[in-house]
Write a structure and sequence with these properties.
One of its GO terms (molecular function) is ATP hydrolysis activity. Belongs to the ABC transporter superfamily. Lipoprotein translocase (TC 3.A.1.125) family. Its EC number is 7.6.2.-. InterPro entries: AAA+_ATPase (IPR003593), ABC_transporter-like_ATP-bd (IPR003439), ABC_transporter-like_CS (IPR017871), LolD_lipo_ATP-bd (IPR011924), MacB-like_ATP-bd (IPR017911), P-loop_NTPase (IPR027417). The chain is α/β, with parallel strands linked by helices. It has a single domain, classed as Rossmann fold. The protein has seven helices and ten strands. The strands form two sheets. A six-stranded mixed beta sheet has the order 6-7-8-3-9-10, with helices on both faces. α3 crosses α4, α4 crosses α5 and α5 packs parallel to α6. The longest helix is centred in the C-terminal third of the chain and has 18 residues. It starts with 14 loop residues before the first strand and ends with a strand. Bound molecules: adenosine-5'-diphosphate and magnesium ion (MG). Magnesium ion binds next to α1. The site of magnesium ion (MG) has 3 residues, from α1.
Length: 240
């Protein structure tokens, strides 16, 4: 029998990030674009969820809002028990730093810094981490993503897949509760993209982080424990 709300899990105990009746309308004064039309969503500790949908269906908008980078027009976002939409930018920023890691289609690494420096940066920005501790943790993470032999390479000296692995290590270095990845393999060839998805899955199991991956690519979405299909700002035909 079809579950009318497949994006909601029966067991809510370990939900790390959720949203209720999320809507988003962009309004530039001349045009109103209703991008999200009342979505419910939840992800559990250690769960790997893929959201798949064609370009323009609202995936990036949803991820931005779930990550507290933008506010919904209406609806609620709960991150580790905090109602993000009710907080000011500073408080949202603090929760983001504490609980979330982000990966994008383009790596956004700093070109003048090597892999260890790029990955240790988020920890260095935290007052409670020394340079030595941050670099030690960065080295561990880079080793986990298969880059032990590239620690002192700068982004320009790495392949596309390697750069994305560095970006992934950087997202994981603060031990976030949830990693939000927007088309993390969109810039890579298929073989490399599949390798990165496998890596995400392995790391999720090892580090017990929830991963939310957004993609327009059906095949890549199949790496998820749960796949949600998005169309025109709504869920469609999703299965658990
Ligand atoms: P996807 O990531 O699935 O390709 P997006 O979330 O980027 O989709 O965009 C969904 C729709 O929202 C698109 O039609 C896009 O033009 C519109 N949109 C996104 N951001 C804005 C914005 N800042 N202002 C107006 N419209 C926007
Ligand atoms: Mg997008």
């Amino acid at each position: 029998m079809n579950n009318p709300q497949p994006h909601l899990q029966k067991n809510h105990t370990n939900v790390v990030l959720s949203a209720q009746r999320l809507s988003k309308t962009f309004d530039d004064g001349r045009n109103q674009v209703e991008v999200l039309k009342g979505l419910d969503f939840s992800i559990h500790e250690g769960e790997f969820v893929s959201i798949v949908g064609t370009s323009g269906s609202g995936k990036s908008t949803l991820l931005h809002i779930l990550g507290g980078l933008d506010l919904p027009t209406s609806g609620e976002i709960i991150l580790k028990g905090h109602a993000m939409n009710r907080l000011n930018e500073t408080k949202r920023g603090n929760l983001r730093n504490q609980y979330l890691g982000f990966v994008y289609q383009f790596h956004h690494l700093l070109p003048e810094f090597d892999a260890i420096e790029n990955v240790s940066m988020p920890l260095m920005l935290r007052e409670n981490s020394t340079v030595e501790q941050a670099q030690q943790r960065a080295t561990e993470l880079l080793t986990k993503v298969g880059l032990k032999h590239r620690l002192t390479h700068k982004p320009g000296e790495l392949s596309g897949g390697e750069r994305q692995r560095v970006a992934l290590a950087r997202a994981l270095v603060t031990s976030p509760a949830v990693v939000l990845a927007d088309e993390p393999t969109g810039n890579l060839d298929r073989r490399t993209a599949l390798d990165i998805m496998d890596l995400l899955k392995d790391l999720r199991s090892e580090l017990n982080m929830a991963m939310l991956i957004v993609t327009h690519d059906d095949q890549l979405a199949h790496s998820g424990d749960r796949i949600l299909h998005m169309q025109d700002g709504l869920w469609v035909n999703s299965s658990n």
